Every structure is written in C-alpha cells, then in structure tokens.
Amino acid sequence: MIVAYLFSSPEGDIPLDPEDLSRPFLVTPEKAHPHLTLGNYFDTVKACILKDQGELLKRVLKGRFRGNFDLEDVQKIQIRSEKHGILYHLASVEVFMAEERVKFTLSTAISGKGVECILHEHDILDRLNRNSGFSFLPEIYGIRKMTYHTAQGKTEEMVMLAAQWFEDYHEWHTAMDPADGRQKIKIWDLKRDPRYASSTEASIIIEECSKILTLYYDFGDFSYIGEWHHAAGDFIVNTQRNWKLNVRLTTVRKYEPLPVTEDASPMIAMIYFFLDTTVKMRLDRLDGVGETVWLDDFAVAAAVKGFFEGLRTREAKESDVVGVQAADLLSLLQSFDKAELNQVFEPLLAYYVAQDSNGMDLISAHIADHISSLRQALQDFH
Description:
Structural class: alpha+beta
Distance between the termini: 58 Å
Number of strands: 18
Order of helices and strands: EEHEEHEEEHEEEEEHEEEEHEEHHHH
Helix content: 25-40%
C-alpha cells in the first residue's frame, strides 16, 4: 500500500519530502506547536485511518463497496492537507482500490478549545442528520481520539472527525472584477479555473444558502444554525453540466435559539431568524481573506426567496410546523411599514452590539438601506 502526504494548492498537489515533514506543526496559522512536527500530524492521520484493520474505512465505504472490505484491497492512500484553521485542521483522505475510489474529510483538533469545538460539531451534525431528513450537511463517519508519542518522549492527544467530502464543490467569495470594477461573487473552481458567477448564479447561491438555513430551523425550541460565515467558506457550490448550481453547508458550529427569541411566540421567533439571516447573508471578506464587505442589494431579494422556499418545503414535508405558515408570515412582514420594521430590528441590533459581532461597523453603516431594500423585496415577493 502506498501512502502519500500532500499539500493542496491552487496549482495542484504538492508532495511533501522529509525536510517538509520535519517542520513544526502549526497550532494556528501563526503559532508553531512546541514539539509536534508536520510529519507527526500526517503519521497520526494515517494511523487513525488504518486503526483496527481499517474500521473507519469500513464506515466510509458502507453501502459503496461490494463484498467484504480488507485493508489489502487498498492500493494507495493520499492524505492531503486542505485548510489550516484557527481551531482545527482539515485534511482530505483519498483511498484507491482496484475498482473503487473514495474521498472523505478528516478534521483534527489539538488545543483544548479546538477539541471542545470539534466534539460539539460532531454532536450537532449527527443530531441534525438523524432528525432532519435533509442532506445538505456532511454525513459523519466517526470521531477518534489518537495519541502520539514524539521522539522527545512527549505525548500529544489529537481528536479526529471523519466526515463526507462533497466532491467537486468549491468555495466562493466576494471579489472585485477588474474588467468592470464591480463587486461580484467568484467561484473558486480549481478544476475548471476560478470564474465570476453571473448575476443569476449569484442570486441562486444566496437563495440556496438561505433555504438551507431555513430547512434546519427548529420550530419547537427555535434553534437555528449559527456562527456560519461566508468568509470561512462554510457554504460551497457545485456547478452541474447543465449549469445548475448545488449548494452545501460544510459545518455547524452552533445550533441554539437567538437570545432575543426567549419567551417569544413561534411567529415572532421565526421573524427574528429571518431578519438575522437577511443581515448575515450580506457579510463576506473580499477574496475570503481581505476586508469585510457588504454584498449588494441582490442578496436581499435572494435571501427572502430562499427563506420562503425553505419554509414551504418544510410545510409540505411536515404536518407539525407549529404556529408558522409561510402565507401568514409573508402577509405579516408585508404589512410592516418602514418604522415598524425598524422597531422589529432593534433587539437584534442590540444583540449584535453585545456580541461584538464581526461586521458590526458595516451593519450599522448599512442597516437603514438594508431595511428599505428588505421592505421592497418583501413587497415584490409572491
């Protein structure tokens, strides 16, 4: 069996030599681990994959591999470092057999906070996948605690979460098109070259993001998917041959009610979730890493459309959507004049300030125009 260690890059895979693997492992993009090397990290990922005669691989291959799986069936494994985050590190694992190829993700946490977050994420994803009936989130294959003994006699624990890899899905971010100097959504499609989305495609992407969040909203306790960020590349997009776009959400860091919905009725709680979605949908970082930017007004109408598509899908699928009907909610929202819509927004804005929300300066600067655009989008929506 061949096992290759690689770095992912826009120009293609970069094989790692012994000198590369001897470098310190980075706990964060700026901080090196005191004794772990990059090789230690890759070796532990490999050990996690092969542990217990490939028990983790059996879970990944369940339903795909015909016959009894044996590690001897594996011809090659490519472990590819994909992304280096603040709390944990994302690798893709590609397994090649004679007539089968499978790819999945392996996220690794080392710091105490990172381990806490990855365990929490595992529990949320597992619960939502089991209870929702939708497939916009990655399937979970397992979580493992691995121990590594360094050459210096040190012991380090890593927690590794194995999950579905969304094949041929790509990050997207707001970018400035030098051809016309306009803000556009750029799809980081490294297979076919990065490209600027058309205005129609940009709207569809935002619609789908808004719809996905609504599909996973809990009508019982008002929990919703929170702390997602366009800048982090949480929503990814796939372009089909017929140019149809599919969107998926790669992670769920938080799933709980907005504090402003405490003691609220189901209708009022849904309104706050809706308003929060329309605001957060407009925040991104230029090229994913630059200054925080505010998406143009197209995002408002798209978020409204996606929200109501999600709500109507839930109505068609479930008989126990309590206290909220799409037609009644739309009618209520359309009845608000600008002053009333401003008043409804006030508790949400106070919550953003209390949380020192990222992008608060932009939200404050644009909220008056946002409310006007939102009111117009609601009036235009049918």
